Amino acid sequence: MKINAKDFRVREGGEVNLKKWPTIVDPVYKSKEQYQELLSEHVAQLSSQQQLLYASNRYAVLLIFQAMDAAGKDGAIKHVMSGVNPQGCQVFSFKHPSPAELQHDFLWRTTRDLPERGRIGIFNRSYYEEVLIVRVHRNILRSEGLPDTPRDDKVLWRDRYRSIANLEKHLYDNGTRIVKFYLHLSKDEQRKRFLERIDEPEKNFKFSLADIEERKFWRHYMKAYEECLGATSTSAAPWYVVPADDKENARLIISRIVLDTLDGLKLTYPKTSTERRQELLAIRKRLAK
């Protein structure tokens, strides 16, 4: 199976029904060995492209990962980005906002951590939590201290979608390329992974009672994701729905989409001017003595 990014991309302006999006597809690999080979190839290519990104210093790349618990965000980031120079890549995880962060608008805390040109930034969860978990647990809004919270929920979420889309368009216009991944996990597969976290001692730290409590809101989260994906997938910042029941396949799909994004930038190493070349040759002569 050849990975075609368009198969997973959410069409701009379209309605999203996650029941129609698969949580598992035919695997790209035929064996664990081939999976390792393919991933190694992708990682090597990503490393090369990241060097070009850094050297050209024209674009920044922001990768956003959103998903239900146990969908494999951490593993995807770890394996896909394993070959990237740490100096050119930063990962940020956003959980419950601090008291200081609650004193600002909902985009403030993530905006501080946007990647600079030449670098890759990764958001493990992001400002999208403000239209996902906050939507499912409406009481969270009370802690945000909004002066005029709309009584009509449709207006509230519409305004937040608009704020997000405007931010992402602004970033695009100024050289940041945004790629957003929703790791689409089935409820049954999540249950299996939770059981693994309980049964395998080395995974116990990954599990908490809160994870089980959130499963009760599965239907509400799916609705929140559907509206969010449909409202905020744009040409400037597309969403990709990645089937996540097969972790290895998901990693290969993600790495291919990231590679396609970087390839599309047509990056090249900066050309050396005549004056700079002469300077380098003069320095070389001094070093050769």
Mean pLDDT: 93
The largest sheet, given as strand count, sense and whether it forms a barrel, is: 5 strands, parallel
N→C terminal distance = 57 Å
The fraction of residues in strands falls at 5-15%
Radius of gyration: 21 Å
Topology:
Layout: H1 32-56, E1 60-67, H2 73-80, E2 89-93, H3 108-111, E3 120-124, H4 133-136, H5 153-173, E4 176-184, H6 187-199, H7 209-215, H8 218-232, E5 239-243, H9 247-263, H10 274-288
Parallel strand pairs: 1-3, 1-4, 2-3, 4-5
Helix pairs in contact: 1-9, 2-9
Care to give the gist of this entry?
45% of the residues lie in helices and 11% in strands. It has helices at residues 32-56, 73-80, 108-111, 133-136, 153-173, 187-199, 209-215, 218-232, 247-263, 274-288; strands at 60-67, 89-93, 120-124, 176-184, 239-243.
Task: Note down, in words, how this protein is organized.
This protein has 289 residues and is of the alpha/beta class. The chain has helices at 32-56, 73-80, 108-111, 133-136, 153-173, 187-199, 209-215, 218-232, 247-263, 274-288, and strands at residues 60-67, 89-93, 120-124, 176-184, 239-243. α1 (32-56) runs parallel beside α9 (247-263) and α2 (73-80) packs across α9 (247-263). The model has no long low-confidence stretch (mean pLDDT 93).
Features:
289 residues, alpha/beta, 5-stranded parallel beta sheet, 10 helices, 5 strands
